[in-house]
User: Fold this.
Amino acid sequence: GFGDLLAEGSARAAQKIGRGTMQHSMSVKGQEFAMHEPRSKMGLAYHFALSPTGADHLQGEHDGAFDPDLTGDTHEAEASSVFMQQIFPLGVLEPVPSLSAAEDKVRLFFYLQHHFSFLDALCICLFTTAPVRITTFDEITKIVQSVTGWNISFWEIMKAGERGVTMARCFNIKHGLTAKDDSLPDRLFQPVQGGPQAGSAILKDDFEKGKKLYYEMNGWDRETGIPTEGKLIELNLDELIGDLMHRPV
Assistant:
């Protein structure tokens, strides 16, 4: 019968077993990590914690593509790297170090998550698209225009992605999730013990500050992460206001 318990995932298994086992469950919202380590590319800390479905490494492009120390770009050539050129339309004009969880990393994740949200809505494989792969933002826009007949702009595409992120947030809140669920296992705030990233750790204060900054960028309440009435109206999602008013407390 123990296999049935393990089949529920490490988080539920740890909750039932107790005895401190939760510290060994590398999961967020019940979803386990994939192979990726946030202490070596810290944008993933926001991917994992702020994904509506739990630890998800496909909320946006990973840090290394925009870090000249990893792509091999020299200081003089970093701004002209292929990946940086492709992400320019999002307003990201400067490289962002992988081992940073600061404001520029939050902003990078904020834009990339909206872009990937739209790709999910279109069922376009993220392994084919900008800012790292071959299909550019302009080409994605033209594809949507050609298929739908709409005179859609890239700005509208990004707003549609933002709408998807906010709708998922409202769904989670309606079903009882709170800002406390946008968390990380404590182990990630402890230094890596060995290997090339030995000593690397995410600073908890930086992470909590970045989480609140992300809420603000989305137009959500800084403390609760609940979308504001103004943001829902701006996104033409005002029909969801009532759901948030009657959420579980």
Remarks:
- The two ends are 35 Å apart (CA to CA).
